[in-house]
Write a structure and sequence with these properties.
The protein has 6 helices and 10 strands; from the N terminus they run H-H-E-H-E-H-E-E-H-E-E-E-E-H-E-E. It has 219 residues and is an alpha/beta fold. The chain has a single domain, classed as Rossmann fold. It is globular and about 40 Å long. The two termini are 31 Å apart. The relative contact order is 0.15. The chain binds S-adenosylmethionine. S-adenosylmethionine (SAM) is lined by residues 5, 9, 19, 45-48, 52, 67-69, 72, 93-95, 111-113, 116.
Length: 219
Amino acid sequence: MTSSMNTYWNSRYADGRIWGDDAIPSVKRTSDWFREYYVNEVLVPGCGYGRNSIWLAKQGFQVTAFDVSDVAIQMATEDASRQGVNVNYFVGNLFKPALLNGIQFEGIYLSNVLHLFLSDDRKRLMERMDAMLKPGGMLALTCISVHDQNNYGIGREVEANTFEKHEGKPLHFYTEAEVLQIFEENYEVLTHTLHVQTESDPSGESEDLQLWFVVGKKR
Ligand SMILES: C[S@@+](CC[C@H](N)C(=O)[O-])C[C@H]1O[C@@H](n2cnc3c(N)ncnc32)[C@H](O)[C@@H]1O
C-alpha cells in the first residue's frame, strides 16, 4: 500500500499547493479545544504540504507531522524553514506499527485522512491513532459526511457509503451514528458537529465540503 499511496499523492502534490496556503477552519477549532485541555505536544498524521501543521506551530504548539508523500514533506519542510517555524516533519506511513517507536502525544489532529480508506483500514487507522495518543489525550478529526451533496454517490459504491470516483481511490461518507460509534469504545466525545470547508484549487475553482468535526478525549 505504501508505494501506491506514495506515488498517487506525490503526483497530486507535483501540481503544487493544491488547496492553497490558508489553515482550514477545523484546525482553528482544534487549537481552541487543545488549549482548553492544556494539550501541548501535537501529532499531525497525513499533514500534506503543511498548511495546518505550520499554523499550529505558530500558535505555540510543539508539532510533529508526517505524510506518506515525500514530495509533500519536502514542501512542508521548506515552507516551515522559510517562515522560521519549527515543526518536526518526517515521511511515514500511518499503518506502520513501528512508526514513532511507541512515542505518544497529548493531541492528534487528523484532517481528511480517515475517509480515504476501506472499512478494515479505517478500523486499523483508529487503532493506530489510539496507540499514538497518551491516556487522557485528545483526538480531533475531520471526515466527509453523507450530507456532502457535491461528492456523495459519485462513482462505484464499493462498500456501504463508500464510493470510488477514481478506481482504487475510495471515499467513505460518514453518518452521524458512525462517527460517534468509532469513538465510543475509547473516547469521551466532547463535540461532534457538521461544518463546511471550502477548498480552492490552482484553476480557481472551489467547492464546499460537508465534513464532520469530532473531538474525543481518550479514556
Ligand atoms: C486529503 S489529503 C489531506 C491533507 C491534510 N491533512 C489537509 O487537510 O490538508 C490526505 C493526506 O493523507 C496522506 N496519506 C494518505 N495515506 C497515508 C498513509 N498511509 N500514511 C500517511 N499519510 C497518508 C496523503 O499523502 C495526503 O497528504
